[in-house]
Write a structure and sequence with these properties.
Family: Belongs to the FPP/GGPP synthase family.
Number of helices: 17
Order of helices and strands: HHHHEEHHHHHHHHHHHHH
Largest sheet: 2 strands, antiparallel
Helix content: 55-70%
Number of strands: 2
Structural class: mainly alpha
Distance between the termini: 12 Å
Keywords: Magnesium, Metal-binding, Transferase
Protein name: Polyprenyl synthetase family protein
GO molecular function: metal ion binding; prenyltransferase activity
Strand content: under 5%
Strand order of the largest sheet: 1-2
Radius of gyration: 20 Å
GO biological process, one term: isoprenoid biosynthetic process
Length: 333
């Protein structure tokens, strides 16, 4: 999934420093080659860019602390992707073999764990980075909370998948854990480092939450609007694994009669769904208005974030965040 947005201007230096930090891997570690594969080439870096933009909107730019915390968030994000691919046995990630496919499951587990442990390595340098003790503790607490939310969201997805109990309410709860948690972390850490008020922290927490929901909605829609090269993942993965993806959840609630029967028969089947099932569902989803309903719900979520960001549109960071939001959540629709 390629987001065509150049992080130039106020982001240019921070973006380059971030990429350098993500490329700085200890060669003495046994897992260094696999870690290098996981982290490079870099992905879209949307969560770090969110942190930079929010900090700028609140008056802070060019801080080494921003780069360090942003890198930690990106490493945590990559760790979750590595572990998710193992759980789902997904063979592709970002248009190439997933880590456990390229190496092996054991190596992938170790790499994910290694990246998680790295996310708090900055603590020993907090003072040199200009992070006061109170803020450092608050940021650590945010990382802990995000980690717990990520695990909770993953567990909820597993429960929904095994029981085929799909509802829109449960889907949003799952996404708030699996996806929004890291957007919230980026948003709140940016606000903390910029010495924001409690009211501003809460506002940007909500921005992160809604951004994460919109991002996941669109990620779930990609198989219906793009090919594997653009999506960067196996288009049949959600259907084959019977995951509660956005279109499937909306379809379960919206479809009636024969269309609903066909959908449930595919989900109930012990045989993994293939390309024929996917093509049939795509046709049903288009004709029955499922994909249009999904786009409408996505649009509503984007408008909610826009309203929250309106007071900051005159700042470089605020305007960049609006553009990042729309280009991330409207890719290939």
């Amino acid at each position: 999934m390629k987001v065509e947005l150049d992080p130039g201007g106020f982001l240019a230096t921070s973006s380059e420093e971030l990429k350098n930090e993500l490329s700085n891997i200890n060669p003495k570690l046994e897992q260094s080659t696999a870690v290098q594969y996981a982290l490079n080439p870099h992905g879209k870096l949307i969560r770090p860019l969110t942190l930079f933009a929010i900090a700028n909107a609140l008056g802070l730019s060019g801080s080494k602390a921003l780069v360090t915390i942003a890198a930690s968030i990106e490493k945590l994000h990559i760790a979750t992707l590595v572990h998710d691919d193992i759980i789902d046995d997904d063979q592709w990630r970002r248009g190439r073999p997933s880590l456990h496919t390229q190496f092996d499951v054991g190596t992938a587990i170790v790499v994910g764990d290694s990246l998680i442990f790295e996310t708090t390595a900055w603590v020993k340098d907090a003072v040199d980075l200009g992070i006061n003790p109170r803020s450092a503790l608050e940021i650590l607490s945010q990382f802990t909370t995000a980690g717990q939310q990520l695990c909770s969201g993953q567990q909820l997805e597993s429960r929904m998948t095994s029981s085929l109990s799909f509802s829109y309410t449960s889907y949003i709860r799952m996404v708030e854990g699996k996806t929004s948690a890291l957007f919230e972390l980026a948003a709140v850490c940016g606000a903390i480092l910029a010495n924001a008020s409690e009211e501003e922290k809460q506002r940007f927490f909500t921005v992160g939450q809604k951004f994460g929901i919109a991002f996941q909605m669109q990620d779930d829609l990609l198989p219906f609007f793009s090919d594997r090269e653009i999506a960067g993942k196996d288009l049949l993965s959600d259907l084959r694994n019977k995951r509660p993806s956005f279109p499937l959840v909306v379809a379960v609630e919206l479809l009636k009669g024969a269309n609903r029967t066909n959908l449930l028969s595919i989900l109930d089947s012990e045989t993994p769904a293939g390309a024929d099932s996917f093509s049939m569902l795509t046709e049903i989803f288009v004709k029955a208005g499922v994909l249009q309903k999904c786009q409408d719900l996505l649009g509503q979520t984007l408008e909610e974030v826009n309203a929250l960001l309106q007071p900051y549109r005159k700042t470089e960071g605020g305007e960049f965040l609006v553009q990042l939001l729309h280009q991330s959540a409207r890719r290939n629709l």
